[in-house]
């Protein structure tokens, strides 16, 4: 079936890196491998293909061949074919291909699951990539380089979303194998000096000179797994000690939010609020961050009229339901709401909903809704 050239398309680049090895001064390779990064992007790809019918998907992964020892005398290669490895060259080539093949109005979704790093907690973030050509085993993708590549897409009128399921800075201690952060290695950085910043469009050059280009997006949106001084973690969600299924906490709840909400029909803002609550509940001290515009959908524009006034609510231990908004957002005592499941837009069309009108009590930053039936104790927004 021929593709409709007039209809906006979605282009995706999914990067998942489990296999990490770093050359030590002793000549041995230190294993810093993760467990859930490849699974993160594999499941996102499956959802995009089977449910969203996205046709333009590139996936670059580095899977471990098996259980790794802490130290190894030899460099180990991923099980994937070299053209599918998440190397610097392959990632840059994939981003350039997307920019050249996409047309104005198309959406671009980029997802990275792996280690992050930075020189210190005040320095810009870098993504840690697998690299077979380096004698260190690693290579960094600088924030300024990524800004340059994304700014070219914005210049072409593409709608860009970047999700980074990794730690942002060295403010966390790397003493837990479930944390997605690697200590900064100056030898890795020195081996590949960045040259992209000098080619930045003047419109974006001031962004590259800021503290962290990835926290100052212009024309696109970024979601990170945690705040600048927090841990981004992996977690076993399988509840089966004999068959553990690790995921990045951000990636897991992002995919869950898409599945529960219908994905393309929900604004990025509402998805972000939902996954933030779920992440905080699972991993105390990990708070996803959102930078840039978030009024669109993840895979293009949201249909007109959907989710115009949706607000997320949370059921508290005392069975009260709390709004994730308050007086400073314009909510007052006596305001009425309809309660409906997350992502359900039926209330927009006047169809039956699962709860009657709600009244706001004790309006503050997080007001409480009274007279809530508790037959469906799921998190859901109100309209």
What this model shows, in words?
The chain is an alpha+beta fold. The chain has two domains: 10-292, Rossmann fold, CATH 3.40.50.1460; 311-382, no CATH class. It contains seven helices and 20 strands. The strands form five sheets. The protein has a six-stranded mixed beta sheet with strand order 4-1-6-10-11-14, with helices on both faces. A six-stranded antiparallel beta sheet has the order 17-18-19-16-15-20, covered by helices on one side. Strands 2-3-5 form a three-stranded antiparallel beta sheet, with no helix packed on it. A hairpin with an 8-residue loop joins β7 and β8 (126-130). α1 packs parallel to α6 and α6 (249-261) packs across α7 (268-282). The protein is globular and about 65 Å long.
From the N-terminal CA to the C-terminal CA, the straight-line distance is 39 Å
CATH architecture label of the largest domain: 3-Layer(aba) Sandwich
Main pleated sheet? 6 strands, mixed
| Order of strands, widest sheet | 4-1-6-10-11-14
Give the helix/strand class: alpha+beta
- The name CATH uses for the topology of the largest domain is Rossmann fold
Low-confidence stretches: 170-174, 197-211, 346-367, 369-383
| H-E string | EEEHEEHEEEEHEHHEEEHHEEEEEEE
Amount of helix: 10-25%
- Quick one: overall form? globular
How many β strands by DSSP? 20
Mean pLDDT: 77
The radius of gyration is 22 Å
**Residue fraction in strands:** 15-25%
Highest CATH level, the class of the largest domain:
Alpha Beta
Q: What is the number of helices?
A: 7
* Number of structurally distinct domains: 2
């Amino acid at each position: 079936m021929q593709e409709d050239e007039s209809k906006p398309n979605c282009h995706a680049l999914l990067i998942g890196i489990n296999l990490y090895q770093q050359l030590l001064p002793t000549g041995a390779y230190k294993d810093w491998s993760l467990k859930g990064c490849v699974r993160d992007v594999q499941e996102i790809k499956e959802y995009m293909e089977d449910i969203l019918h996205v046709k333009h998907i590139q996936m670059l992964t580095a899977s471990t061949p098996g259980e790794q020892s802490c130290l190894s005398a030899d460099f180990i290669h991923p099980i994937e074919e070299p053209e599918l490895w998440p190397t610097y060259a392959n990632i840059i080539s994939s981003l350039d291909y997307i920019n050249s093949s996409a047309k104005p109005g198309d959406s671009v979704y980029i997802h990275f699951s792996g280690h992050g790093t930075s020189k210190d907690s005040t320095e810009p973030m870098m993504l840690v990539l697998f690299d077979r050509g380096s004698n260190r085993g690693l290579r960094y993708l600088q924030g300024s380089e990524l800004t340059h590549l994304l700014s070219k897409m914005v210049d072409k009128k593409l709608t860009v979303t970047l999700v980074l399921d990794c730690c942002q800075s060295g403010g966390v201690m790397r003493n837990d194998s479930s944390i997605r952060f690697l200590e900064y290695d100056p030898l890795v950085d020195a081996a590949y000096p960045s040259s992209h910043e000098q080619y930045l469009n003047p419109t974006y050059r001031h962004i590259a000179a800021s503290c962290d280009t990835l926290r100052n997006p212009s024309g696109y949106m970024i979601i990170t797994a945690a705040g600048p001084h927090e841990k981004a973690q992996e977690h076993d969600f399988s509840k089966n000690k004999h068959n553990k299924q690790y995921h990045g906490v951000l990636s897991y709840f992002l995919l869950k939010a898409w599945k529960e909400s219908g994905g393309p029909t929900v604004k990025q803002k509402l998805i972000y609020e939902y996954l933030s609550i779920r992440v905080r509940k699972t991993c105390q001290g990990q708070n996803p961050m959102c930078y840039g515009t978030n009024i669109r959908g993840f895979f293009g524009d949201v249909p007109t009229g959907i989710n115009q006034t949706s607000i997320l609510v949370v059921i508290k231990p005392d069975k009260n339901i709390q709004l994730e908004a308050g007086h400073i957002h314009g909510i007052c005592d006596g305001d009425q709401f309809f309660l409906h499941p997350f992502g359900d837009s039926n209330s927009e069309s006047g169809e039956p909903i699962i709860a009657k009108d709600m009244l706001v009590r004790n309006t503050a930053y997080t007001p409480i809704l009274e007279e809530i039936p508790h037959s469906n104790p799921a998190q859901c927004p109100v309209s």
